[in-house]
Amino acid sequence: MAGCLDIDRAGSVVELGGGTGSITRAIVAAGVVPGDLFVIEREAALCDVIASRCPGVRVLRGDARDLQSLLRHAGASNVKAIVSGLPFLSLEKHVGRRILNAAFAVLAEDGEFVQFTYGLNPPIGRETQAALGIVGRRSGWVLANLPPAAIWRFRRTASASHERCVA
User: Fold this and answer.
1) How many helices and strands, by DSSP H and E, does the chain display?
2) Do 167 and 125 form a contact (C-beta atoms < 8 A)?
3) Domains of the chain
4) Pair 155, 131: CB distance under 8 Å
5) Cα-Cα end-to-end distance for the chain
6) Phi, psi at 51, each rounded to 5°
7) 3-state secondary structure of 87
8) Half-sphere exposure of 66 toward its Cβ, with a 13 Å CA cutoff?
9) What is the pLDDT of residues 71-108, one digit of tens each?
10) In angstroms, rounded to a whole number, what is the distance separating the alpha carbons of residues 106 and 82?
11) Virtual CA dihedral for 35, 25, 72, 78, nearest 10 degrees?
C-alpha cells in the first residue's frame, strides 16, 4: 500500500485504523516524513503501540467518522493521500458512508484514497462510489498476506487517472 503513495508530492498522509503500526511503518519506510503522517486509531492501547514503534508520527486517538475535526485540531493540511485498512465490507453502510464523506472532505482535490481488502469485490460499492462522485480501481495484490489482499485506489471522478502501485 505504501508503494501507491506519491512520496515526492508535498502534503500530509493520513492512515485510518493504525492497529499495531505495520502499515504505518511501511509508509514511513517508503519515504513519508513521520511528521507528515497522521494516524487515526480509536483504541488507546494501540495508539501507544504505534507511538512507541513509529517515533515522530502524529497518532490521533479518535473515530474516523470525526476525521475532519481530528485533523483540524492537529493542524493537518493539504492531505494528499489517505491509506485505510478499515473493514468497509463489514461496516454498516451509513457508518462507511460517513467515514468516506469525512475522508473526501479533507482530501485534496486530486488526492487519493488507498484501501486494502480481503474481498474480491470493491471495498466501496458502485452505488456509494457514484453517490460520492468517486471511482475506484484495483491496482495491486499483496500475495504475501494470507488470505491475499487487494489494494484499491479511489479518486474523485474528475481526477481518476490511476497508475499501478508496488505492493
Assistant:
1) 5, 7
2) no
3) 12-159 (3.40.50.150)
4) no
5) 6
6) -60, -40
7) coil
8) 11
9) 999 999 899 999 999 999 899 999 999 999 999 999 99
10) 9
11) 70
- 118 closest CA partner among 80, 85, 69: 85
* Cβ proximity of 38 and 60 under 8 Å: yes
CA atoms within 13 A on the CB side of 135: 7
Three-state SS at 16: strand
pTM: 0.90
For CA atoms 135, 139, 145, 146, the dihedral sign is positive
- Which residue type, as a one-letter code, is found at position 98? R
Q: In terms of Cα–Cα distance, which of 116, 46, 69 is closest to 88?
A: 116
Helix (H) or strand (E) holding 105: helix 93-106
